[in-house]
């Protein structure tokens, strides 16, 4: 059965850029330079300009951006990183991969983001950093988090994979912390045509270290200063991203416009995202919550509307993270059990969203 309104359609989403992509690919073939060339350098500059930041390092993907930020800090085995309990598992995996200990903190049920009031209780002698996630396109409440970092001398890493262009009190996601880690996975608000990622950092020292870490510990060919990785931003993906970056604000505005329709027209049978003027949400994901989520999802599918669940299983319940399967995070579990993500992409039209709203408002329990 083909869907009338799929949750996402990347081909449609990228169609406006197709001619430019094709031209770029031709130029790329002509240039014959495939790794760490001028496209990567220029994308780093332009992504930095967008954020008004000086230090940007392109990397292979969002997970690596998180891993390399932790590696750049030289934490010791067993050091603790505070991280939200409801996030995509990548955030937590980055900590595990570095031999560090993820300490999960519950979200605020109204924002779905880490609850600043609960962070302080989780800080111990071994805490070295907070890794916040700006989930679904909305920034965390940064003021209290920044003051905890300052008071307890903790590093701050932002997982911005869902928050390109989102702001808190007018300041962009990725510019609050020591590191802002981005993914350009194709479905993200700024999406490549494959895997890609980037890091914003605040110091020259971290910048140099990250540039070495992504390229075998080397800035100068065959001179390996540290134990690095191969995590370079691909040249052709950087070239494609340079085409889309100037449209990021337009993409975000489109998503905001669609979200505004849901917010004003969906009935109160559904729990909608809470709007607060301190936050400019870019709605990477527009989610609602409903106690009969699975039935609602099936009902929408019968009406040929695609939806997703972000996420069906909480990270602490995943087999991969057996060591935390016994822990209890009731707020996170409640969100995982009731959340449903609705179509809200650059490829959707206002009419699509009206159809989804109408269908939803006709849902009978
Ligand atoms: C997508 C995503 C990542 C991982 O990005 P990749 O590029 O797929 O590695 C990390 N954190 C969050 C919150 C994400 O949504």
Automatic annotation (TrEMBL):
GO MF annotation terms: glutamine-scyllo-inositol transaminase activity; pyridoxal phosphate binding
Secretion signal, residue range per the UniProt entry: none
Enzyme Commission no: 2.6.1.50
One of the GO biological process terms: polysaccharide biosynthetic process
Keyword Repeat annotated: no
Enzyme kind, highest EC tier: transferase
Keywords noted in UniProt: Aminotransferase, Pyridoxal phosphate, Transferase
Post-translational modification N6-(pyridoxal phosphate)lysine, affected residues: 188
Listed InterPro entries: DegT/StrS_aminotransferase, PyrdxlP-dep_Trfase, PyrdxlP-dep_Trfase_major, PyrdxlP-dep_Trfase_small
Active site: 188
Family label: Belongs to the DegT/DnrJ/EryC1 family.
Protein name as it appears in the record: Glutamine--scyllo-inositol transaminase
């Amino acid at each position: 059965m083909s869907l009338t309104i799929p949750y996402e359609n990347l081909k449609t989403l990228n169609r406006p850029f197709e001619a430019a992509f094709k031209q770029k690919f031709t130029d790329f073939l002509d240039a014959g330079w495939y790794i760490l060339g001028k496209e990567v350098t220029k994308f780093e500059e332009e992504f930095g300009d967008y954020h008004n930041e000086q230090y940007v390092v392109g990397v292979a993907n969002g997970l690596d951006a998180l891993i390399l930020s932790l590696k750049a800090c030289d934490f010791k085995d067993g050091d603790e990183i505070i991280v939200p309990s409801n996030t995509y598992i990548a955030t937590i995996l980055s900590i595990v991969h570095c031999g560090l200990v993820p300490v999960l903190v519950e979200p605020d049920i109204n924002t779905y983001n880490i609850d600043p009031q609960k962070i302080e209780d989780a800080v111990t002698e071994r805490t070295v950093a907070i890794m916040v996630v700006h989930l679904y396109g909305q920034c965390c409440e940064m003021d209290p988090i920044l003051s905890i970092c300052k008071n307890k001398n903790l590093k701050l890493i932002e997982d911005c994979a869902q928050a390109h262009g989102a702001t808190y009190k007018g300041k962009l996601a990725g510019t609050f912390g020591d590191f802002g880690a981005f993914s350009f996975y194709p479905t993200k608000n700024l999406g490549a045509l494959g895997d890609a990622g980037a890091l914003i950092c605040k110091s020259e020292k971290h910048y140099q270290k990250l540039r070495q870490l992504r390229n075998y510990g080397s800035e100068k060919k065959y001179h390996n200063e540290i134990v690095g990785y191969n995590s370079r931003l691909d040249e052709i993906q950087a070239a494609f991203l340079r085409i889309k970056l100037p449209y990021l604000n337009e993409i975000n505005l489109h998503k905001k416009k669609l979200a505004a329709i849901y917010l004003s027209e969906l009935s109160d049978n559904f729990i909608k995202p809470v709007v607060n003027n301190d936050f400019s949400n870019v709605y990477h994901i527009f989610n609602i919550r409903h106690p009969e989520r699975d039935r609602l999802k099936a009902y929408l599918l019968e009406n040929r509307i695609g939806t997703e669940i972000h996420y069906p299983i909480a990270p602490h319940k995943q087999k991969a993270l057996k060591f935390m399967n016994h822990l209890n995070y009731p707020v996170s579990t409640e969100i995982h059990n009731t959340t449903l993500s609705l179509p809200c992409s650059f490829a959707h039209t206002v009419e699509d969203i009206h159809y989804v709203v109408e269908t939803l408002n006709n849902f009978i329990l």
